[in-house]
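Feature request, filed as a ticket because there's no other form

It would be nice if the structure record came with a short human-readable summary line next to the tokens. Right now we just get the raw output. Example of a typical job, pasted below so the devs can see what we mean:
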Amino acid sequence: MILGAQRSIVGSSALISRRYSRSFEHSRKHLIGTSPSSSRARFHGNSCIPIGPMSAKGASMDVEAVIGDPESLEKKMAAIRTAGTGKLQVIADFDGTLTRYWIDGVRGQSSHGLLRQGNPEFDAKRKALYDYYHPLEISPTIPISEKAKLMEEWWGKTHGLLVEGGLTYQAIKASVVNANIAFRDGMVELFEFLEERGVPLLIFSAGLADIIEEVFRQRLHRTFKNIKVVSNRMVFDDNGQLVGFKGKTIHVLNKNEHALDMAAPVHEKLGDPNGFNYDFASVKTRTNVLLLGDHIGDLGMSDGLSYENRIAVGFLNENNDKSLEIYREAFDAVYLNDASMQGVVQLVSQLCSSPQ
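Raw output as currently delivered:
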């Protein structure tokens, strides 16, 4: 069990283990590293990903991961290493990707879900929308084109309720203070590693930029000069009350590098007046991409970029039995059971190492 998730992998995971059971020992050395802390491993999909960080309580975590095509992944890694860090960027989703899905056995809140307007009537209305639309969002049977229309509908209604209900920025701050939200273990290590090497990290989120940035301030108490949030950004009046949103709506199925144009023309720096002057034009010249997401729709985050190599890492947080095969085919690597970010830290370390 990982990060409080009271579940185990059965069904499809076991099926994949049987169907793709031959050992891929070569990947043990080259894919994710072989540090002493990485001695434990699970085999799935012709792969061995050795990850064995310690949980907050000190118990060894047995992280399960799936690689559908290890040979392809190795080729991509080699190409990215050869090109160097100057050609690399990381594109990541926020909710359920950078943040934990389960916290002490309880479903963690999203940047939308943690918000309390201070108006119980409108909080209840937004909760009713979640209860209706979220099962549609995670359904493995609804076509993407149909889902996109449903998500546009959901986000539009939710944003309308936030304005109508008189949301204030003070309510946002108070909501984050009381929120059940936390970054995955190893997240700060990843942020610092990328910052030290000058690798930009674009956080594409269908949530709310103002809340995401407040989570950074309150949970991490610092900023990172290489991180940029591209999300739905609010407009407040002089009294700190929400009056609208900048740009077009970014939802879970349309967030991609085109969202740089869809979102507000100017995004403020992440709370740091001396922060990194993010040049989106130069980001588009970084044609090697590490993509992190927890939703099939997250794969579209790089659609607006003419990339040469892309490694897509997926976090499958629920519906394991129904969705594992889909995720295995869509992502280069899939982490299960609300895994920590340590495997990604090791992967990035490999990508930023000198070519062998």
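Something like this underneath would help us a lot:
Residues 1-62, 264-277 have pLDDT under 50 and may be disordered.
The radius of gyration is 20 Å.
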